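Structure tokens please, single chain.
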Amino acid sequence: MTSLKLTKVGTSTGTIIPKEMLARMKVAKGDTLFAIETKEGYLITPYDPAIADQLDAGREFMKEYRETFKALAK
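Here you go.
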């Protein structure tokens, strides 16, 4: 477990994320992180939940039309 200390950044509040955490999340300066509210608190992730929903819908569509995609691939 890593603790993050809040610090003043201009008129806002921010935190510094250690280099090791950034590497494990595969993010770098300029990337976007998403804060998703869960019943336990907040989850900080580089993955956009809206994109995940779109990918799930696409996978379901491809599964439904699997034979059509096989025929088109020939």
